[in-house]
Description:
single chain; alpha/beta; Rossmann fold; 2 domains; elongated; disordered N terminus
Amino acid sequence: MNAQGSSPQATAPGCAPYLELLDTLSAAIAPLQALHQLAIDALEPTVQDILRSGSRDAEWIERILSTIVTLDNQEPRTGVKQRLESVMDFACGSGSLLLNVRKRMGSHGIGKIYGQEKNITTYNLARMNMLLHGVKDTEFEIFHGDTLTNDWDILRELNPAKKPTFDAIVANPPFSYRWDTSDALADDVRFKNHGLAPKSAADFAFLLHGFHFLKDEGVMAIILPHGVLFRGGAEERIRTKLLKDGHIDTVIGLPSNLFYSTGIPVCILVLKNCKKPDDVLFINAAEHFVKGKRQNQLTDANIAKIIKTYQYREEEARYSRRVGMAEIEKNDFNLNISRYISTAISDQEVKLGEVHRRLIAIEAEITKAKDKHNAFLQELGLAPLP
């Protein structure tokens, strides 16, 4: 500023035309910005109604998965990471799970959001959802394409040094999705080290796709049908390699009938490239729910218990247990939770002395009652009870 309080640029010769141009541009842009905001205001109620109608199952999924991936990968007990440079959901639907991760990190705690969605209508909904929640178009990238065939160009990079990787990966893909396998897919860099998932169930194909793009210090949380824990064949080979390589960190069993679309029980798998504990944490939350009219529900307390158990790697009888690899290997790398956490209620110890005393007391009461009753019968001239 000069002595008169005006800026030197404002009084410099030749600046006036440029300042006038800036004023003109600002005046032209203002109505467009107002129109953009008007469109958002008009669309928001409709979009929110659509999201609410399709997200009855989603809230508890989002809370658990988004919390897990935002905790420190090596020491979850230390709390939320300071920053995530990138988060990915390869079956993002309307994008609500990605937005939940962003909400937990804060708008300045996350770099860029990446999502992929095959359904064109849902893809468009995801993009609108981002904008409606204040995410700038430079802060997210949603791609329309098939995850299993890897249509997205940025994920097809063959040079390992240039391969995109993500700090956090979350997903709720279609359960037991039928897919077309081929020789080309068998040689795909995402699958060739583990093998292809069977045609009848692409669950492990989705998992391996996401895991391939996970950073060394990243965390992946994916919800899958319970069958991935114990099914044989190709799935057993994939599961065994993931376990032997030390990538499966936590298995969380959830109640059946949590979804409107299916009543099958589901689980959450937490995967890491570099995990600190040399064991697998099993959490049996299958019996911790509230029964609803149409579907079962997880309460806030149920959700908080799952997250706390994961965060502090707590062990609790009939609920959670840390299992070493030697025991898992003895079970042929079967991750069925019932093999590691017993839910049976032990028989109560019978105290014979106390039972005997109670029987004597009952017998005495019976004799007393019968004698009284026989006295009444005698007064009436009737035969007594034997």
